[in-house]
Specification:
InterPro entries: DUF6444, Transposase-related, Transposase_IS66_central. Pfam families: DDE_Tnp_IS66, DUF6444. This is IS66 family transposase. This protein is extended. Strands 1-2 form a two-stranded antiparallel ribbon. A hairpin with a 2-residue loop joins strand 1 and strand 2. The longest helix is centred in the first third of the chain and has 22 residues. With 350 residues, the chain is mainly alpha-helical. It has three domains: 47 residues; 142 residues, no CATH class; 69 residues, no CATH class. It has twelve helices and four strands; from the N terminus they run E-E-H-H-H-E-E-H-H-H-H-H-H-H-H-H.
Amino acid sequence: MTISDINVDEALERVRQQLKEDRTVSPSLRAAIDVLMLLVKLMADRLATSSRNSSKPPSQDMNRVRRSRAAGERKPGGQPGHEGTTLVPVDDPDEVVKLSIDRRTLPRGRTYRTVGIEKRQVKDILIQSLVTAKRGQEAMDAIGVLPFVQGVLVHDHWKPYYRYTECRHALCNAHHLRELIGVWENDQQAWAKTLHDLLLAMNQAVEDAGGRLSPDAARRWRERYRHCLAEGDVESPPPAKPLLGTRGRTQARNLFERLQARVEDVLRFLEDSAAPFTNNQGERDLRMTKVQQKISGCFRSWEGAEIFCRMRSFLSTSAKQGLSAHAALEQLFAGEMPLFMQRDERSQAA
């Protein structure tokens, strides 16, 4: 690993070699130096970790470049003359508050007369937080989605997911690619770079084959995959009994054992057309809901939430069918159904 043009691994290795050759260093000093070298290694690993080579979010990257927006001439919010409507007053409000004028507070020396009543409607949004003591599978069961999944469940190897046995599991390879980059850059283990490139080549082969490989082709890719793991077992061997106060398995070894134990789930995309290479598409489909939540904080009604989800689902499906959002909305407002919806209706009628 290199930080500010300094190869930390080489520097630590030189210190280890000097300690090994120097017979005058006392055992207590040698132990203290070993602890300091471990701390240097831990801090160097932390500095070298970013969103590019780990699951760390980009917002936590050090010295990340922030995009600055050029100041516009218009003020934020709705512009004068823009089309829009306000909330229509309701006939039966929950509460009516009459505000009377205290004449003693009015400026003296003037004549005042009643000109009418001004009405205003205010809608308060009740914000509630639901806190549950449930965790893990119990919490996911309470949400009521995953227990009914019977297709392919793509995830990041969180162990509670594997308690659902009615579906096929696939691991998101976007996580694996980032972690392999981290092992290659931080620990200089060649098997990680080889396996990183191999996974990308597998994905390209699946795309070229139209979404799935033949059994013979998949078998050949699996052999190459296991060959990479064999090299990884040599470069990242299981640790001996760890010293007190030190880590046991390294991050590289943990990644290796996960890739070895879950070969079928890692490579399910080779032959199963329902299993994607990564879970990025699912995260993209949820992103706009999180953006709306970030901007507005919540939905004002359950009906509004359903309308939002229905529209996002329609636009997302249109994009996956090769139809742009603009063209899909044009057809929708013209009273025409997109071609993929017409095909679905014909298949249901048949």
